[in-house]
Amino acid sequence: MLNACWSCLTRVMLITQVQSRFKRFFCVCVCVCVQAVRGTDITVKSYKVESKITSRFAHTTVRSSVVNSGLSAQSIGFNVQIPKRAFITNFTMNVNGITFVGSVREKTVARNLYAQARARGKAAGIVRTNSQEMETFKTEVHVPPGSKVEFELHYQELMQRKLGVYTHTLHIQPGRLVPVLQVDVYVFEPKGIKFVETPNTLGDHFSGVTKITHTKDKAHVVFKPTVQQQRKCPNCTESAVDGVFTVRYDVERESNAGELQVSDGHFVQFFAPSDLTPLSKNIVFVIDVSGSMWGLKMKQTVEAMMTILDDLTMDDYFSIIDFNHNVRCWSEDLVAGTSIQVAEAKKYIQNIKPNGGTNINEAILKAVQILMKAHNQGMLDPRSVSMIILVSDGDPTVGEEPPPHVIQKNVKKVMREEFSLFSLGIGFDVDFDFLERIAMENRGVAQRIYANHDASEQLKQFYSQVSSPLLRKITIQFPEDAVSDITQNRFDKFFKGSEIVVAGKMKDMGTNMLQSFTTASAEKTIILRCVQTFNWYCILNISWLFVFICFNLCIALFIRVKVEIEKEHKVTVTIDARISMTVLLHRVWKKHPFNVDYLGFYSPDYNQFSTQVHGLIGQFVNEPEVKVFDVRDGTEPEKKQATMEVKGNKLTVTRGWQKDYRFDKKHGSDVYCWFVHNSGKGFIDGHYSSYIVPNLDSFLPPV
Fold first, then answer.
1. What is the mean pLDDT of the chain?
2. What is the pLDDT of residue 302?
3. Which phi and psi angles does 366 have, rounded to 5°?
């Protein structure tokens, strides 16, 4: 799964072929989507979508079964909209029992093979991606009457966290009534699911149709309308299923340190700190007021700006530039976000009258100049975040003529390393590729704003994503001798509600141990340094070292110091305000065939033990070196076995689920760990019986 994180969907043509004694091949083609299944006299037997999301990585499969029920040969189309960041991993067609499997070919070769197939009267098509956003997949195959065609498309995407939530969207457009229409979304997050919800994005027509089942770490969302429920009206033959099906969720997080996962020779680090004070902002808003912005676009931009300006605080500095063929500044200098300045800025925005051409080049250069002036005058807090937010709906038409790459070069030349550029492209005809390139080259991102009734909300939502910067200059590092092929690990900014993800390969495929170091600049703590070491999961949390190992012991533990007791629940022992330990009473079902009530021993990270500490738990304060290798099948299919090397011993360990009661004292959290057998023999020093005393005071010297 993690290996797929580094893959990217290249803009190439796909050709599908099957190896058989007939040497048949077939291709398919991608363009603008109208319906999922297209063609006259076509019977759609089923339309199914299944997504499996594990640790924020989604695998989606779209399947459709159709029949040419006409009296003559015709083309059957299969169109699917996919998220822009997704990449197609496989596509197959089964035509009358013959399966055609997709493969990647160079564009010219694919076209030639397609032409040859059509010339011979064979079933053929071509698969092509949209050159601008790669958002639509469309296939078309020409088949004889009575033919049955089954389409199956697979794509993957890494989930993005925005405003504290992961959003998984599926475009459901079957094109007609379908006897079997079903959408299943499975979510598995080992750390736990905080919440899961399905906004009613398909409309009130389907209110109550979606069902959700949810446990601590798993969720299943199913949408399965009957044919009658699919109808636009009781007697309609048109389908009301035409839109976006949305699943939103977030995961539980134990701390600001992040989450490091290792699996199958790969790793992924998730970093999403919270509870930090937002950094102050220095923003120059650059607004396109050319003639093409006239009407609804300008009205919605102004409406959004009214809300955005209200969000500014006295610690923020801002200015506004509006441009057409000329460039105008509301203020040549950055001003504080006081109520007086905000009110003046609102009046200026409301009096804008769109007309003329589009001089993006001079507008952005002027914005950089304003930020540079403030920087040189010492106005800006060194911990603040400086950004330019560009809102435009068209191509550059004035100033630098024409090529956009010249504008990119001009902007990149003058932008300081601490400045970022965010681009918002309004409408369908905007040169979004240009806006995206110029943003990404200058430490920002771009987003398309669709010019419809809620464009204002789209603008405000985007601003919400970047309005609360929490960290600057974030670096996540790993030991050079431990990893390779690391994705981007240096980030200019971290915004509230988002998430940083770094992935890579383990050099030693036999180990699941990895340490990461995260440094960043925050508002009150100039350098935030987090260290995490991961080796699966454990009942032992040793400082920042997470060596996840389990073993069972049947012992009684007694300590005579200051004791706090919660009746029939727990005992907390505190020693000199530096060491705290808790013993929890865990009860099991009285009629359980073999499990009995037991005590769980818990020691927090902040305990200040001496370097000579020992004992059953104390011996792990000084972390032993642990290696796990030779992973193999065990006696039970779901429980792998491996060899663990620790303290000069080689032990056989078993992979399995155990309970961790550090955070959920009542139900516990399911954790996946390596289980050491024989009461920890070979893992603990000596024999477990050495840690059992016959009397409470037997460890004391005789009087």
1. 80
2. 92
3. -65, -40
Note whether 279 and 385 are within 8 A (CB): yes
Which residues, 6 or more positions from 373, have their beta carbon under 8 angstroms from its beta carbon?
A: 332, 333, 334
Identity at 251, one-letter amino acid code: V
Helix axes 455-466, 296-310, angle to 10 degrees: 30
Question: How far is residue 634's CA from residue 658's CA, in Å, rounded to a whole number?
Answer: 17
Counting other chains too, the contacts that 697-701 makes at CB distance below 8 Å and 24 or more residues apart are: 697/560
Q: Which of 518-527, 673-682, 683-692 has the lowest mean pLDDT?
A: 518-527
Give the H/E segment covering residue 646: strand 641-646
Q: Which of 34, 94, 85, 30 is nearest to 60 (CA)?
A: 85
Secondary structure class of 196 (helix, strand, coil): strand
Lowest model confidence (mean pLDDT) among 443-447, 503-507, 659-663: 659-663
Query: Sorting pLDDT into bands at 50, 70 and 90, what band is 478?
Result: confident
Nearest-CA neighbor of 390 among 284, 509, 512, 263?
A: 284
CB-based contact 676:650 (threshold 8 Å):
no
The region, left, alpha or beta by phi > 0 then psi within -120 to 50, assigned to residue 258 is: left
pLDDT, one tens digit per residue, over 8-61 is: 222 222 222 222 222 223 333 222 222 445 455 788 899 999 999 999 999 999
Find, among 180, 176, 235, 226, the residue nearest to 206 by Cα: 226
Cβ(137)–Cβ(29) below 8 Å: no
Chain centroid offset of residue 417 CA: 26
Q: Which has more confidence, 51 or 528? A: 51
**pTM, entire model:** 0.67
Beta carbons within 8 Å of 676's beta carbon, 6+ residues apart: 549, 550, 551, 644, 651, 653, 682, 683
The rounded distance, in Å, linking the Cα atoms of 684 and 618 is 10
β-bridge mates for residue 346, sequence order: none
Query: Could you tell me if residue 414 is left (phi over 0), alpha (psi between -120 and 50 degrees) or otherwise beta?
Result: alpha
- Cα–Cα nearest to 185, from 211, 161, 216: 211
Amino acid identity for residue 568 in this structure: E
**For range 491-518, the mean pLDDT:** 84
The residue type found at 350 is: Q
DSSP secondary structure, 423-470, as one string: EEEESSSS-HHHHHHHHHTTT--EEEE--STTHHHHHHHHHHHHS-EE
Nearest alpha-carbon partner for 184 in 58, 306, 295 = 58
Torsion of CA 158, 186, 36, 129, to 10 degrees: 20
Segments of 82-135 assigned E as strands: 87-95, 98-105
Beta bridge partners, 151, equal: 64, 93
Alpha helices in 272-329 (DSSP H): 296-310
What confidence tier does 466 reach under pLDDT thresholds 50, 70, 90? very high
How large is the average pLDDT for residues 643-649? 91
3-state secondary structure (DSSP) of residue 111: helix
Asked if the model's pLDDT at residue 65 lies above 90, the reply is yes
Write out the two tokens for 35.
């319906």
Q: Is 474 left (phi over 0), alpha (psi -120 to 50) or beta?
A: beta
Under DSSP, the state recorded for 52 is E
Phi, psi of 373 (to 5 degrees): -60, -45
Q: What is the 3-state secondary structure (H, E, C) of 321-371?
A: EEECCCEEECCCCCEECCHHHHHHHHHHHHCCCCCCCCCHHHHHHHHHHHH
- What are the backbone dihedrals phi and psi of residue 417, each rounded to the nearest 5 degrees, phi first? -60, -30
Length of the chain: 703
Largest CA distance in the chain: 105
Query: pLDDT: is 96 or 175 the higher one?
Result: 96
Mapping DSSP to helix (H, G, I), strand (E, B) and coil, where does residue 481 land?
Answer: coil
- Distance (Å, whole) CA 299 – CA 426: 12
The tokens describing 529, both together, are: 């340094």
| DSSP secondary structure, 15-34, as one string | EEE--STT--EEE------S
- The whole-angstrom separation of Cα 425 and Cα 434 is 10
